[in-house]
Amino acid sequence: MPQLGVNIDHIATLREVRGGLEPEPVFAALVCESAGADSIVVHLREDRRHIKERDLCILKEVVKTKLNLEMAVAQDIVKIACAVKPEQATLVPERRQELTTEGGLDVVSNFKRIRQVLKRLEDQGINVSLFIDPDRRQIEAAGKIGVSMIELHTGRYAGAANAKKQDTYFKELETAVDFARDRNLHVFAGHGLDYSNVSRVAKIKAIEELNIGYSIVCRAALVGLEQAVRQMRALING
Ligand code: PXP
After folding, report:
1. pLDDT, tens only, 101-159
2. 213 C-alpha to center of ligand 1: Å?
3. DSSP bridge partners of 4
4. pTM surpassing 0.85?
5. Does the annotation count 151 as an active-site position?
6. What CATH number is attached to the domain comprising 74?
7. Ligand 1 mean position to 187 CA, how many Å?
């Protein structure tokens, strides 16, 4: 059964709506952990639209499970990551205009830059994962670059317009997982997963971790964060 990483970016989004201090992402992280989350995920975006350095530093002190920092391969962000030293960094592409991370990292086209960043982070003892599309070329490039973990983008599966398309994208995901396992990569997955589509993905045996944010925070607004994490955990546990 995969581990559950809870992304708490949108707890900070809510805080930023009024620019105050509530809700406190660190408080949310503790609630998620006590409700069964195996790791806490945050994305320090270049525009700092939700999570700030301050959040990252306190989270590093407080999180007892695993802190997974999603980050672009931008110089200033790499510098912060090297200083804070989260247990894990997930390299993601980033565009300022996007509402959320739209696609996977293009490892093929940015091979050299990603390899440099990978080395810098690993030198600081940070485990690095690459967030990529379920695409053979990208998985092959991830294998070549020397990373040991990848996170497959489930956005196409999660956002499929109908059941037939969802089946197609599910098969694409399963094939990509096998392809990555054949290359000895640890495989995680995430993006767009929610209470209605997570079970199928959680049943893919080789997937070791699912990273989920938006749907959990949405449900938390109605039933509370602890309950929302427990419900997601139960679905993943099957
Ligand atoms: N994994 C990665 C690499 C992401 O960038 C995100 C979004 O921040 C997620 C998982 C979680 O996606 P969602 O918020 O749609 O559950």
Report:
1. 778 999 999 999 999 999 999 999 999 999 999 999 999 999 999 999 999 999 999 99
2. 6
3. 210
4. yes
5. no
6. 3.20.20.70
7. 15
In single-letter form, the type of residue at position 68 comes to N
Range of the domain at 20: 3-237
Number of separate domains in the chain: 1
Task: Give the burial string for 149-185 (b: 16+ CB within 10 Å, else e).
Answer: bbbbbbbbbbebeeeeebeebbebbbebbebbeeeeb
Question: Which atom of ligand 1 is closest in space to residue 215's alpha carbon?
Answer: 16
Peptide bond preceding 86 in cis form (omega within 30 of 0) = no
Measuring from each residue's beta carbon to the nearest atom of ligand 1, which residues come in under 6 Å? 7, 9, 43, 70, 90, 92, 100-101, 131, 151, 190-193, 211-215
Catalytic residue among 10, 33, 43, 94: 43
CA distances from 93 to 28, 43, 132, 176 (A): 26, 11, 9, 19
> Cα 74 from chain centroid?
17
Taking the CA atoms of 214, 220, 226 and 228 in sequence, report the sign of the dihedral they define: negative
